[in-house]
Amino acid sequence: MSESTSIGIVAPKIAHFSEPLALKSGEILPQYDLVYETYGTLNADRSNAVMICHALSGHHHVAGKHSEEDKYPGWWDNLIGPGRPLDTNKFFVIGLNNLGGCHGSSGPATLNPATGKPWGAAFPVVTVEDWVNSQARLADYLGISQLAAVIGGSLGGMQALQWTLAYPERVRHALVIASAPNLTAQNMAFNEVARQAIITDPEFYGGDYYAQGVVPRRGLRIARMLGHITYLSDDAMGAKFGRKLRDGNIKYGFDVEFEMESYLRYQGDKFAGEFDANTYLRMTRALDYFDPALPYGGDLSAALAGVKAKFLVVSFTSDWRFSPARSREIVKALLDNELSVSYAEVTAAHGHDAFLMPDPHYHAILRTYLGTVLSAADDASRSAADTGVAS
Amino acid sequence: MSESTSIGIVAPKIAHFSEPLALKSGEILPQYDLVYETYGTLNADRSNAVMICHALSGHHHVAGKHSEEDKYPGWWDNLIGPGRPLDTNKFFVIGLNNLGGCHGSSGPATLNPATGKPWGAAFPVVTVEDWVNSQARLADYLGISQLAAVIGGSLGGMQALQWTLAYPERVRHALVIASAPNLTAQNMAFNEVARQAIITDPEFYGGDYYAQGVVPRRGLRIARMLGHITYLSDDAMGAKFGRKLRDGNIKYGFDVEFEMESYLRYQGDKFAGEFDANTYLRMTRALDYFDPALPYGGDLSAALAGVKAKFLVVSFTSDWRFSPARSREIVKALLDNELSVSYAEVTAAHGHDAFLMPDPHYHAILRTYLGTVLSAADDASRSAADTGVAS
């Protein structure tokens, strides 16, 4: 295995798009910015680009640090860098913050050009389909007609799948990790509780809290605490916290008694101080709405009939949010269409969050699969690029 | 099978206890009321009494109706009545509202005799052990030295188990249903999110909201919505709601889109209008704290060494809140002590809530087991009653 290092110091960039974007809701976003980062070098025939699609609370800062002083690197730094499974010596990697986000791309907290004030509640409800359309424009902007691969975990995996549906000629490989072809009723129920916690916070002001100088911190905190429960498996929580008391003895009250409560409150407080509530609402709705089989009466195989990409689908045994059974639904629909698909069900204790962890087995699978992506055999599938927009 | 009917019209009674109750927290409740109901007739030798222990949001009104006009009967009416599995032609059944409750027993919303104002935050944190001690006093009050059985589901099952630990001579049978020997970290995490939603509601006022003329309705609503997710299995939610849209088309916003959202909001609103938030906090803490194995270094078998009762333990395959594995922990510890235990793992789709449903297989198990309780064979285990307080 080659030596593996972080990509080092990186800097975000902003792409402005002045061509209106028609959204699935029927609304039109007249213009917008996307903040993005790139790692590695685009090769001469522009065939080595990999797009990273982020999940609910993710963003463009996927790898490296913005300065030597940064305490933590980007959120998927363990995956991306020289010698890492997604090797920046070979690939040109693109991370972006999705529309509606709160890390630099146009979203509820950014200024609405029409009013000069924050969009707030007026920022449209965006979908996975809208994101992928905006990501395709970012690829255009970067002169990339065809992506070597699109990679995403969770909500990011839904975007990777959507890429192969919306732009079958523009993506050779899709890596769909810890994802699902749609949410279950239970998944949606958790989203609804989180949203209701935010919306009923007296400081939400119908989504226009920016003008009030407040944020619905209480609601966002509850939403994040709840989220954390669903990201971890019961076993992982048991192993990490069990029933450990924080101070060794029971105090019979409602302050922190158990270690796990301290962890949840910390995570909730931290998130509520950083993330935008309107973005949280939109990210969860994008999850709810994604359902490519819906126009096909629930027949996912029919929905994937036009797909051309090759797939790696990965699930984790302890992921009860997006269980392996949901990944197998995707695998089955791909196989029904005689598409090339590799599937790995990784034994991991971490639950849904396992997709972000540097589990050796998991990373070996990604390394091996990505090793095939720019191989000679892969070239055969690349001809479609010649018809692309930027070739 | 005999004809089965509801017990009919019933009326609650109040028992006042002026002897102080020492609580596990170290606090002392100087006096208190317990509201209770009874169904059936106590037999001459007072050997046919069955106590029903309620779960988080339960109460004393277990069976029958308070008036012909009542829309719904008590919460376990399908179990209790003439000819029903817990047959009131044979048994004298006692339901009560636990201390700290909000249905008539002393609790945060009742008047503190010392101040003449609602207890509010000053009402002590009560535990499963405290409840069982207060229930034993209710048995004394009713002239019952030994219960034929104690029955409870979920948190109620913990009380049934605690009865056999605290009063081994005073209970012949324990029916522990959909329960666990303690909460997992994940179970406790859900409780913590629910409590934080309540406590951070601006109308909570540190628990003394009664004086403000408000209730922390928003927080209680979120707590209940979350609770409902954990009471149902993912499959049950899928079967009941799936991804069904309420109005048939997607509106791309944050009002109700899916049927499931409408259900959760309705359940949350209803509960928030009826239940007391301070009670909710205390019920969840009682769940958190229950852990009979704790003083034995986690060794449940050692904790149950003094138990004498016979057990029926029932779990449900789709219960992910208190999974069958947790019930099997209890069964193992009972068997380690060479106690008599019957165990049934019922195939049911409803999740945790299955313990309240009239599933024929489940009810047949209860009927069969309860059929043995007053049999001649059962008499042999009854001699201990002769040493009891009221014999």
UniProtKB/TrEMBL annotation, chains A, B:
It is found in: Cytoplasm. One of its GO terms (molecular function) is homoserine O-acetyltransferase activity. Coiled coil: none annotated. It holds the Pfam family Abhydrolase_1. Residues 49-355 form the AB hydrolase-1 domain. It is an enzyme of class 2 (transferase). The record marks R321 as: Important for acyl-CoA specificity. Belongs to the AB hydrolase superfamily. MetX family. Pathway: Amino-acid biosynthesis; L-methionine biosynthesis via de novo pathway; O-succinyl-L-homoserine from L-homoserine: step 1/1. Homodimer. This is Homoserine O-succinyltransferase. One of its GO terms (biological process) is homoserine metabolic process. The active site is at S154 (nucleophile), D319, H352. InterPro entries: AB_hydrolase_1 (IPR000073), AB_hydrolase_fold (IPR029058), HAT_MetX-like (IPR008220). The lineage of its organism: Bacteria, Pseudomonadati, Pseudomonadota, Betaproteobacteria, Nitrosomonadales. The keyword Acyltransferase applies. It comes from the Bacteria. Its main location: cytoplasm. The gene is metXS. Substrate binds at R224, D353. GO terms for cellular component: cytoplasm. Keywords: Acyltransferase, Amino-acid biosynthesis, Cytoplasm, Methionine biosynthesis, Transferase. It catalyses: L-homoserine + succinyl-CoA = O-succinyl-L-homoserine + CoA. Transfers a succinyl group from succinyl-CoA to L-homoserine, forming succinyl-L-homoserine.
